[in-house]
Design goal:
Blueprint: H1 2-9, H2 15-21, H3 26-43, H4 50-82, H5 92-97, H6 112-129, H7 135-152, H8 159-164
Helix pairs in contact: 3-6, 4-6
């Protein structure tokens, strides 16, 4: 695996490290579960209004971007000074705005998960601003859309649809 190669190159090859690293991808799922729990707890008694939605989305976006942007800038400066060829195929503006979930395009590959986190925030903000929309119907419709896309739409045909109806959302 890629993780064991990293450990071997650093002379850290160890059965324990390699066993744990094989399951590193689970961290993203745990992150999304914790985030979903936090969103549910922080919005459970919120009044449903446009202002409450604005407050929620502003707070959440600031929390993500104010932590992410300094790290991204440091990464860009690092790569620019020490491995500028790395940046040649990266979409820096899309990395900065977190509007691309393709890890190969991003300066910081794991940031793809933040793109989905922002998407989830938008869904919750949408629910907060409208007392008429039933969350079960919205999420049910989203799940049906994902299943229909999986059955009938070829991946890569439309980046917009691939993102908003990604099977990753089912996780």
């Amino acid at each position: 695996s890629a993780a064991s190669d990293v450990y071997k190159r650093q002379n850290l090859s160890n059965v324990v490290f390699e066993s744990i690293a094989k399951f590193g991808f689970i961290g993203v799922d745990i992150f999304f579960i914790i985030s979903g729990f936090v969103m549910a707890k922080s919005t459970i008694n919120k009044p449903q209004s446009l202002y409450a939605s604005y407050q929620f989305i502003t707070h959440r976006f600031l929390r993500i971007f104010l932590g992410f942007w300094p790290i991204l800038i440091l990464a860009i400066v690092y790569y620019y000074n020490f491995d500028s060829s790395y940046l040649e195929n990266k979409l820096i503006l899309q990395s900065f705005l977190l509007v691309n979930a393709n890890m190969m395009d991003l300066v910081i590959s794991p940031a793809w998960s933040l793109t989905y986190e922002l998407y989830f925030y938008l869904i919750i903000a949408f629910l907060i601003c409208s007392p008429v929309i039933n969350p079960r119907i919205l999420f049910g419709t989203l799940i049906v859309g994902i299943i229909v896309k999986l059955l009938f739409v070829v991946l890569g045909d439309n980046k917009f649809i691939d993102f908003f109806l990604s099977s990753l959302i089912l996780e």
